[in-house]
Amino acid sequence: MGKYIYTYIENGQMYDKSPSLAELLAKEGLSCEKIVTGKIDYIRVENLLEKIKDAQGLVFTSKNAVAGFAYNMGEMACEGEPDCDGALNGDSVEAFDVRSGLPDGIKIAVVGNKTKEALRTTCGFEADFVSYKSTGLELGRSLMNIAAGKIVYLCAEVTSGSLEEAMKEYENLIKIPVYRNEYVDTYAEYGMKDYSDVSGIAVTSGSSGERIKWLIDKLGESCEVPVYSIGPACSRKLVEAGVPEGRIIEACEHSYSGLVEAIKKSAGKPEAGIGR
Questions:
Q1: Which distant-in-sequence residues (6+ apart) come within 8 Å of 135 by Cβ?
Q2: 172-181 tens-digit pLDDT
């Protein structure tokens, strides 16, 4: 069995103790190599507290969004303090009193347990609602049944669109980007390497799939090396980019652990197809 390529988005400031995909693959005895497809940059939101002061709910669909929110709250807490570091830099943001200034009684909804844990670890908050499945589509559908008033969606500059699609009939959903996924030219950095021993490609986001499409194509010329997708939004982006559905193996659980399980169960079986 050869090695597995996995996509990776660098985030030097995200405080996260959960195992990396590389660690999980290594634990199963699987050889792996990462390709960096992007770098996270936080967006400074002017007057963030003013924008959320009358909100009934906050929504997060990723750990990066939680970190972007914490970054902004920390920056505001440090305003005017020359020796205060409002960015995360591996430290809990509880020191910056992120609770201050939020509306009383505001509810927080998150995608899955990983985002729930990031909210607790990074901000000291407990989520009031966690989606049954770790997808923006599932969270959006659930919120349509329980949401009331102004809902603020703290998100990436460019989103998958899943939550917005599920809540398109909701008139009071406000999007506030708190981070961006900066483009990395994967071919320029990795295009000359030898990938003849690759047994599969694990794709951790839709944008990563688009940026690594050249390698997916290259490994499909002589043999159909399977492409493992972390979830529905990622799979949709892969298909839109031109990857055949029959080549995509989607993780049942939309997480790093789910990707590893998909690889263990389906390695060498590219005919498995989406969702199998």
A1: 111, 162, 231, 232, 233, 254
A2: 999 999 999 9
Confidence of residue 103 (pLDDT cuts 50, 70, 90): confident
First to last CA, the chain: 21
Counting beta carbons within 10 angstroms of the beta carbon of residue 246, is it exposed (0 to 12), middle (13 to 18) or buried (19 or more)?
middle
> What is the reported pTM?
0.80
CB neighbour burial string for 17-29, b if at least 16 within 10 angstroms, e if fewer: eeeebbebbeeee
* Cα dihedral value 62, 66, 71, 72, nearest 10: 110
Contacts of 253 (CB under 8 A, 6+ apart): 134, 261
Contact 77/86 with Cβ under 8 angstroms? yes
